[in-house]
Specification:
By secondary structure, the protein is of the alpha+beta class. It is 38% helix and 24% strand.
Length: 168
């Protein structure tokens, strides 16, 4: 029985890894990870851009629809609905009546969605804050919307990736 134990130990000793083999495996894993992490980060930035773009399209469509419906009878020229971006939330607000047209500060919110923390929105070179629409679903820059973006061209950025969006 003693001889069997010696042969068994010799057999198990040949199954182990040498230090050189272990270092080669660790090096190959590290090399693989250094190549995979940047690709994964770029992929995540792309996902965030696509997600934010779809949120913007949904908000834009809802604001235009609310402006065309104009259920509160806001007179032409005054903002009926607005798309607002603040505190990493995208929201759509509507005006209450002609004396209280749409504005991002105090109008009722009809839709909102959080935007990823790494996303920045810019319109016409400035940081995007809002877009307002009148009853004809055209951009409005009167009253509370005077500081809003006047362009429907937006740039969405995440990391080193940028996406230009044109609304119609």
């Amino acid at each position: 029985m003693h001889r069997y134990a010696i042969k068994s130990r010799a057999l198990f000793a040949s199954w182990g890894l040498t230090l050189i083999e272990l270092l080669i495996v660790i090096f190959l894993l590290a090399l693989t990870l250094t190549r995979a992490v940047p690709l994964t980060m770029d992929w995540m930035h792309g996902v965030r851009l696509t997600d934010t773009e779809s949120q913007l399209m949904e908000a834009f469509g809802m604001a235009k629809a609310k402006a065309l419906r104009n259920s509160n009878g806001i007179m032409e020229g005054n903002p009926v609905a607005a798309v607002c971006f603040a505190n990493k939330y995208l929201k759509v607000v509507v005006g209450a009546d002609n004396t209280h047209p749409a504005n991002c500060a105090s109008s009722p919110i009809v839709w909102s969605s959080p935007v990823s923390a790494n996303i920045t929105l810019a319109g016409s070179g400035d940081v995007f804050s809002c877009l307002c629409f009148d009853s004809a679903s055209q951009l409005s820059r009167v009253q509370a919307c005077a500081t809003c973006n006047g362009s429907m061209d937006l740039t969405v950025s995440s990391g080193n990736q940028h996406e230009n969006i044109q609304f119609y």
